[in-house]
Design brief:
- By secondary structure, the chain is mainly β.
- The protein is built from no helices and 8 strands.
- It has a single domain, classed as Pnp Oxidase, Chain A (Roll).
- The chain is globular.
Length: 130
């Protein structure tokens, strides 16, 4: 069984690596519709639509114009999320996503952080880095 550490991961906007990543998450969902009929003794369902969304947390880097700077609210981008790294043969998720929110956090005793939320727009594919 293969395991990986979180430090191996990376995220790209198109071909551009996002700088100063702290963490990321992707969640997939599948809606269901009930198809139970009279006489059934158990409820039954069918899968209907699928979706995905997620978030990305970074140390804020205003010089990262092709990564963090490319993710402005309302913008659609191609996100490539690499949980195990981006070397040849590594697996990753890819799809179009709309940036739905940006939060900048700062405290007097910490670093400035940026959080990005996104909503998938279409399918999420599982691919292999080449």
């Amino acid at each position: 069984m293969a395991t990986h550490t979180g430090s191996e991961g990376t995220v790209k906007v198109g071909a551009n690596t996002v700088a100063e990543i702290r963490s990321f998450s992707i969640a997939t969902t599948a809606d269901t519709a009930e198809d139970t009929t009279m006489g059934d003794s158990w409820r039954t369902f069918k899968t209907t639509l699928k979706g995905w969304s997620g978030s990305l947390d970074c140390f804020w880097d205003e010089t990262d114009t092709t990564g963090q700077g490319a993710m402005t609210e309302g913008t659609e981008v191609t996100l490539n999320v690499y949980p195990e790294g981006a070397s040849t043969g590594d697996k990753y998720y890819t799809g179009l996503a709309i940036i739905t929110g940006i939060t900048i956090n700062s405290s007097f005793d910490g670093l400035v952080e940026a959080s990005f939320t996104f909503q998938g727009n279409g399918s999420l594919s599982f691919s292999t880095a080449s």
